[in-house]
Amino acid sequence: MSITLTERAAQHVSRYIESRGKGLGVRLGVRTTGCSGLAYKLEFVDTATPEDASFQSHGVTVFVDPKSLPYIDGTQLDFAREGLNEGFKFENPNVKSECGCGESFQV
Predict the structure, then answer these.
(1) pLDDT tens for residues 22-74?
(2) CA–CA separation, 66 vs 29, rounded Å?
(3) 67: which DSSP letter?
(4) I want to staple 36 with a disulfide (CB 3.0 to 4.6 A). Which of 61, 83, 90, 99 is the partner?
(5) How far is CA 95 from CA 3, 48, 90, in A?
């Protein structure tokens, strides 16, 4: 099982943690929502929990709760700028379909 960051995503996360002045990494998970069923949640981690799985990628630690891991195993997180928009993009090999607005997915 693994979760990875592209170098661009890792640089973005590292810069943000540095500007915050604290942080261990990021937590990637899923929540039930939207028209397709699941949506990603991403937050900065200041305290790890014992049940979290953790993965190292380009010097950044990614934490995942055990309930989310089967849905996002193998996911690569990228950070992209497209025109005036920027944000994280999720490349999840488990996704079977996505809603039209791109906010939620099914596995």
Answers:
(1) 999 999 999 987 666 888 899 999 999 999 999 999 999 999 999 999 999 99
(2) 9
(3) T
(4) 99
(5) 15, 27, 10
